[in-house]
Structure formats: C-alpha cells, structure tokens
Amino acid sequence: MISDGYGMAIPKSGIAMGTVFENVAIPLQGGVGVARASGPPSVLTAGEEVIAHHTAHPIHFETGGPGALAGVNMRAIDGPRGQFDAAAVEAAVRHPSRYSPRTRLVWVEQTSNLGSGSIWPLAKIESVTAVARRHGLATHMDGARLMNAVVASGVSARDYAATFDSAWIDFTKGLGAPVGAALAGSRAFIDEAWRSKQQMGGSMRQAGIIAAGGVYALRHHVKRLAEDHANARRLAEGLAALPGVRVDPKTIETNIVFFDLEGALTAPAAVERLLARGVRMGAHGERTIRAVTHLDVDAAGIERALAAAREVFTGRAA
User: Fold this and answer.
1) How does residue 254 score in pLDDT terms, banded at 50, 70 and 90?
2) What is the structure's pLDDT at 298?
3) Which of 100, 166, 202, 269 could form a disulfide with 34 if both were Cys (CB 3.0 to 4.6 A apart)?
4) pLDDT in the model for residue 198
C-alpha cells in the first residue's frame, strides 16, 4: 500500500509497487531527499554507525544529513566502482567497545552513482547482506536507480531487494516521473519512517497526483531504460575517440558516463563550453565530467552531444 500524509491509501499505487517489492508497507515520499533521510532514523539511534561505500550518496550529497538528522556516523569503506565485498564489511564491523560507535546498518547503493552506474551483482549483494545478518546488522538498499539494474541485468527488483530489511526506489531519474519516491520495509519500520518523515516536514496532502506519475513510470518507462543504456554506451564510444578524453566504453553498464580530461582544458571550463552549445553535463572536480542519459535524451540527442564535444575538445566543428 502507498499512502499520503494522512495514511490514506492511494488507489492503484500499491498494485504497481507490488510488482517491485513484496510483503512490505510503502509510504509515498514527496522527494528523493525525504525518502533517503526518513529511513535511517527508523532503525538507528544517535551515536550508531552505518557502513557504506566511500562514494555513497549520503556521504557526499546529503549535506551531512545522516549526522544532522539521525545523529549517526558514516563508516566509509573501499572497493572498485562504488561496490564493496563481504570481506570489507567483515573488517568494518566494530567490536563492542565503550569507546567506539556501535555498528548498526549496512548501506548498498544500486546502481552506484559515482561508480559510473555500476550494477551490484546479486551474488555480491547476497554475500554482503549475509555478513550483516551474522552480526545482527540491519541492511538497506538505496535503489534510486534500481530499475536500471533490473533492465540491464535481467534480475528482478524483488530478487535484488530480497535480502534487505528496507529499500527505496526513485520515480524520477531514469523513470521520468516529475517527483516522488517510495520507501519499503516492514510495517514496524515504516511506522517509524512515518514519524521521521513527519518531523522533517515531509507530509503531503492530495498526494494521488504525485503517485499517478510514479504508477505511470512503472508501467511505461521501465523497459525503455534499455534505450538509455544503449545511448550511454554510444556516448562513451564517441567520447573515447576524442583527444584528451579518457573513458572505457566497456565499463558502461547503465546510464551514467564518467570521463576524465587529460589535456589543458579543465572540467569546469569544458562543461561551460558544452552548455553554450546546448549540452548539459556536470563537472566533478577539475578533471572529471559526468553525463547521464535519460527519458529526454534520444539517440539523435547523443549525436548532437558528441558533435558539441568534438568542437569543445578538438576546436573543430563536426
């Protein structure tokens, strides 16, 4: 069931989400930040610790939200392309001590944003969550781009989420809804998430119109994510052919392309020049640029983006 700020059921939304998660309660969230932020306080108390990859979204893009809103510490661990393995989790779990934070939660981001949209293999998820369970830890899946992983891998969302205590999905991003996300978990977890959401000002009235966009996205925009993935690979292939640009197209699994600049041109200057030509990308530091394919970028748009990139990086028109 998906419900609004008063706990009233929103027709059809629960049916649609039932195809994604099973045997869970699901409150509709008005925004991505609320969905991410309302989950941790539901299982954590101040002074406890979350294990996450050092590139995880809450560490870099939530303005210190885990500490400010839940009073918890983030323990950043390493691994290639935004992923860690069972051994890394085992090593990060703290031994009981009056001097240390208590390890409480393992956080997995599927797909990994700063891992260039990399897909966590199901076997790795199962091994990581098995370690967490052995230590009595809660597990949470940040599924902002979960459906990208589903389409690219053929593994169902249900299977990806099966070993987690909680998960959330974003209806915007690749799915293309204008607003909205949903947090899923046990009834007791969601009851606490409601309280956290209310404290954060996340209550909504007349939320059906937001849920309608999410329902439409789940019904019509999931399979087409394969087009975004193909467009991202084409973008990476075109960029790889340009001088001073470093990217390996074989590493592109979904819809996110990170590439590095090796010449004198910096990333901030490059994205300004691209924007002047009608192409929007994002600079990550001085040498790295991020590009994302989505519902509003078709194959012709990719070719226009590559033509602009050729002008920027070679000084010549296509």
Assistant:
1) very high
2) 96
3) 202
4) 83
Domains of the chain plus CATH, in order, are: 2-220 (3.40.640.10), 225-314 (3.90.1150.10)
At residue 196, does pLDDT exceed 80?
yes
pTM: 0.88
Contacts of 201 (CB under 8 A, 6+ apart): none
The residue type of 115 is: G
Length of the chain: 318
CA distances from 1 to 117, 185, 189 (A): 29, 11, 14
**CA dihedral sign of residues 240, 245, 246, 247:** negative
Q: Which amino acid is at 134?
A: R
What pLDDT, in 10s, does the model give residues 8-41? Answer: 444 444 444 444 555 455 555 555 555 555 555 5
Classify burial at 284, counting beta carbons within 10 Å of its beta carbon; exposed 0-12, middle 13-18, buried 19 or more: middle
- Rounded CA-CA distance 291/312 in Å is 15
- pLDDT exceeds cutoff 90 at 287: yes
Q: What percent of the chain has pLDDT over 90?
A: 69
Tokens encoding 208: 């059906």
